[in-house]
Amino acid sequence: MTNIVICGANGKMGHNIYNCADERDDCRVIAGIDLYTKQYADFPIFETPAQLPEKPDVIIDFSNPASLDGLLDYCLSTGTPLVIGATGYTDEQIAKIRSAAQQIPVFFTFNMSLGINLLVELAKKAASVLGDSFDIEIVEKHHNQKIDAPSGTAIMLANAVNETLDNSKHYVYDRHSRRQKREKSEIGMHAIRGGTIVGEHDVIFAGHDEVITLSHSAASKAVFAAGAVNAAVFLKDQPAGLYDMSKLV
Ligand SMILES: NC(=O)C1=CN([C@@H]2O[C@H](COP(=O)(O)OP(=O)(O)OC[C@H]3O[C@@H](n4cnc5c(N)ncnc54)[C@H](OP(=O)(O)O)[C@@H]3O)[C@@H](O)[C@H]2O)C=CC1
Ligand SMILES: O=C(O)C1=N[C@H](C(=O)O)C[C@H](O)C1
């Protein structure tokens, strides 16, 4: 049995993770963390990790980058494994996550779906064949409640493509404020926000008279919740280190 605490328990992903864990026999949610306390049917919610009455086997975080320091303090001092699904971190925060993973198990990915992680591999392959001659643009679409842009997944895809191309590209987020043609070294990053779109990502390779688009669409948040719960059950028994979806396929 894996005892889970959800950080961001009152949020959309928090609810989906609770529902996913509730349907399984090998794990259960024992508590939540969120900005205000609200009693769920089955578990209590606390405002900070320090208030947790017992140490869980693993914490799953789908809250906000603002909760990172408190979570890392708690997980490092108690040796608690941490699954991080939230997005919007600064480079400095990502460095802190990597550093913590030298002492505790940390599972960190901007997208918990298996499909996106295959898309990353396909995009790397396409970049290795087309990257020198085709223009590369990434388009992501999400619901109107999303705070960060571009999405963590779009950044993950761009980084994977760029690393394949020896980091020869730079990212362009805005073409409104300049009057000039596109440079070969650009990866254009485009964020669309509207309605209840769950999450769509296109990596577009545009060449002379031909275009290849690699595309992924999530139909519900349950797909991310399933990945996060699988990650938590996996992480509980791992040594310190940084893990991602490649460990779950
Ligand atoms: N890796 C992946 O596969 C996926 C990642 N995500 C990411 O997960 C995050 C959450 O998404 P979603 O559930 O849709 O967002 P929600 O806004 O619905 O949920 C976030 C919850 O966290 C709470 N919260 C905010 N700040 C803190 C804090 N400092 N400490 C504790 N709780 C806090 C919010 O409270 P309040 O509402 O009061 O601010 C809210 O209840 C986002 O960063 C999103 O991009 C989402 C889906 C998949
Ligand atoms: O905020 C969301 O909803 C999502 N965020 C993640 C991201 O920023 O990449 C993953 C998924 O697309 C849903």
UniProtKB/TrEMBL annotation:
Q: What is this protein called?
A: 4-hydroxy-tetrahydrodipicolinate reductase
Q: Which residues form the active site?
A: H142, K146
Entry EC number(s): 1.17.1.8
Q: What is the lineage of its organism?
A: Bacteria, Bacillati, Bacillota, Clostridia, Eubacteriales
NCBIfam families, sorted: dapB
Assigned protein family: Belongs to the DapB family.
Specify which residues bind NAD(+) according to the UniProt entry for this protein.
G8, A9, N10, G11, K12, M13, D34, G85, A86, T87, T109, F110, N111, M112
Q: Which organism is it from?
A: Ruminococcus flavefaciens 007c
Enzyme class, first EC level, given as a word: oxidoreductase
One Gene Ontology term from the biological process aspect of the record? diaminopimelate biosynthetic process
The encoding gene is dapB
* Subcellular localization(s) per the UniProt record: Cytoplasm
